[in-house]
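Thread: Modeling a multi-component assembly for a lab meeting

Hi all, long-time lurker, first post. My supervisor asked me to bring a structural picture of a complex we are working on to next week's group meeting, and I have zero experience with this. I have the sequence lines for every component (536 residues in total). Could someone generate the structure of the whole assembly? Inputs are pasted exactly as I received them:
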Amino acid sequence: MAKRRLVLTFPPKLVEEPITYRLIKDYDLVVNILRAKISPEEEGRLMIELSGEKSALKRGVDYLNRLKVNIQPLARDIRWLEEKCTHCTVCVSLCPTEAIVVDRNSMKISFNKNKCIACGACIPACPYKAIEILF
Amino acid sequence: MAKTIAEINEKIKKGKVAVVTAEEIIDLVQKKGIGKAARQIDIVTSATFGPMCSSGAYFNTGHSKPKIKLGGGRTYLNEVPVYTGLAAVDFFLGAAALPDNDPRNRVHPGEFKYGGGHVIEDLVAGKDVKLVASAYGTDCYPRKNLETWINIKDFNEAVLFNPRNAYQNYNVAVNLSNKVIYTYMGILQPRLGNANYCSAGQLSPLFNDPYYKTIGIGTRIFLGGGIGYIAWQGTQHNPDVPRTKKGVPRSGAGTIAVIGDLKKMSPEWLRGTTLTGYGVNLTVGIGLPIPILNEEIVQWTAVRDEEIYAQIIDYSDAYPKGKSDSLAEVNYAQLKSGKITIQGKGVPTASLSSYAKARKIAGILKNWINKGEFFLTEPVELLPSVDSGITFKSLRERKIR
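Re: Modeling a multi-component assembly
Sure thing. I ran the full set together rather than chain by chain. Output:
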């Protein structure tokens, strides 16, 4: 099983295309929608986790590329601004996936983008606005 | 073998002073014993870095031409109102102040993106801030309006003056209700979903001198990256609380009021702070040197997280109602492990106070002393201790007819 977390951006003409349906039916992928929005300009954005066989995953992504869906790794949309972080750790207990963890010796935070599902629970908790989700 | 502060300062001058942090002293006392540690070590540096309510700064802007009397009028720094009821061009900026048009908690939880604490951080970062004032005008101060950019360098005085900082111990906050609550102790998940604490524990200043035998008015400290002084006991100073056998308070106890030159401080150690659904504040870095005058004091500085207990308080009901019912007691070693057990349930813990930054401050202060840049002061008067009769009372309301 392979897994990828992506942010998909669709131009207006693709807004009505049943892309997640195709990914499931035609490419046999498990699709987990983390976030979705359509902007006033009718540009659609979908934060998505795809998992399945490695080859199926590649074919699914090729399909998205053919449709001219813009694909970005999710990690690029989540930022931990280390210079703003005080390592207070107040966000840690709110993170459901242990993407934010504390080293109990240094008592410092580290952030693993690959574990982050962009739920946003940490964002209102951070007193210093040290985490951003650009979605 | 008792030492004096004057003798320790002499050693600093000669570059022969022995300084360790409040973490390092723990092992040292364990290995060498109290007697030897007291002889060898001259100073233990303690520190804390956390959101500290009751902080602020006062300023003198100098006089404009023609002159304006800000006192009695309205004055704003970056739209945050300051207190002008002092004089013509002096004012006080409180860390918790909010712009008049901030929506606050009208849509709960409010975001509280910017306030007094953030203005202080911007000023120490060297950013220009917008000073806007309106006044009523007098014969000697005729001007009624003022609008200008101002920089920290432009003020005659910019002085950090925090009436209550460095709480000696604090509650562990939890939520027993069925909905999320937004508090000054952070976001608390329902049904004991998490537990938040706010102290550096074994590194925290007042835990290392629990009866204030070396700390008092005039004690020189690390404050916000610069030099500060203890001005007075802090508000809500409450020394006479239950303590462990070793004298460590089991709940919030002593506090300090601190003062220092804001112009010499740094944005790394004074941070504007947002507490969603609660408000704004200032996170302050404080480092306190403790002179090892005798064996009793070195023993106190060797206090470990395992020996420091805090009370777990329900912030959905007991706290807002002013009931001090504690659900249980935990120590800071348990809190720092990331998980505690309350009513049989495993609860993840998190801190509002940064232990990593407190450790850094203790190291910086140690370095300043070793380099001969920081000397100790003899307090003019020690902080009131358990025998002072000082207590922290609730407000007794009386009907106004």
